[in-house]
Amino acid sequence: MAPPAGKRVKGVQIYRPFIYGTTARPFNDTDNIRPPTVPADHTHSWQVFVKGVDDVEIFYWLRRVQFKLHESIPNHLRTLDAETIQKENEGRPASQKQKGFVVHETGWGEFEITIRLYYETRSGEKPQTLYHHLRLHPYGRTEQEKEAMRNGGEVVAWVYEEQLFNEPIEDFYKILTTGARDKNAGGPGGGKGKGKGKSASQSGENTGGGEVKERSAMIPLTNRPGQPFSRETEQLEIRRLREAEGKVHQMLLEMTKTVKAKEAELAALKKSMASSSSSSATTTTTAA
């Protein structure tokens, strides 16, 4: 396939936030019963996905995703096309439309999943590869985090990412910067971007009432169930990083103080040994 023709928009970078990862649930006798067609040794149902933040559609810039599962799983190479998903969405209520790329499976073991991203043909971008570890069992930095995940009934392993398009081709630039609209609106609207990162479709700033628009780079202002990534998350992460930076700085100060004390102690010891050696040499000469 020949690369798409067209000039690149110099000096412009446009990004689109998205999420990829896995969600797993153990089978039980109440709200996640093992289907009769599922092998008896399969302990969990799980899904792997690539989707937009706040469930906004990403098909206008991402046309295909390929998931490479463990080779023991039948049809372990799963390829999902945006065009096929959009056709299947026709006639469905907005709440039932699939807006991302999702594979549903069952199993008993954890493994690494290879995720291959294929961009809109007119973008001229080469495919990119992501790697994600399927988690079936609660995890966390502390026992409290593990217990919270265990009590929640789901093992969530999600990653927030931003796809950067550097100096996009003009046709693709128009796709990215045209049509920002309210979620669940009835089709692409107006709202062509102007300038570098100034329109709602390019800017990552959410300065309105918190509603994330389709075909934009917005993320929610606050967290809510099922949507853990937001400006609130960002600020909490910045705060944690600053606190960690402060702790590291304090540790360095204490270490520097300790090193200087040890250096002074070593210098005093060397001076004492030199003095003792000189005194010993003088006594020997006198005796002779």
Key features of this structure:
288 residues; alpha+beta; 4-stranded antiparallel β-sheet; 4 helices; 8 strands; extended
Overview of the structural elements:
With 288 residues, the protein is an alpha+beta fold. The protein has four helices and eight strands. A four-stranded antiparallel β-sheet has the order 5-2-1-8. The protein has a four-stranded antiparallel β-sheet with strand order 4-3-6-7. The longest helix has 57 residues, at 231-287. The protein is extended and about 105 Å long. The model is unreliable at 189-204 (pLDDT under 50).
Main beta sheet strand tally, sense and closure: 4 strands, antiparallel
Number of helices: 4
What Rg do the Cα atoms give? 29 Å
Query: Which structural class best describes the helix and strand composition?
Result: alpha+beta
Give the total of beta strands: 8
Task: Estimate the global geometry from the Cα principal axes.
Answer: extended
Low-confidence stretches: 189-204
Tell me the fraction of residues in β-strands, as a range. 15-25%
Order of helices and strands: EEEEHEEEHEHH
- The percent of residues in helical segments reads 25-40%
Question: Which strand order do you get reading across the main beta sheet?
Answer: 5-2-1-8
What is the distance, rounded to the nearest whole angstrom, between the alpha carbons of the first and last residues? 98 Å
Mean pLDDT, as a whole number? 88
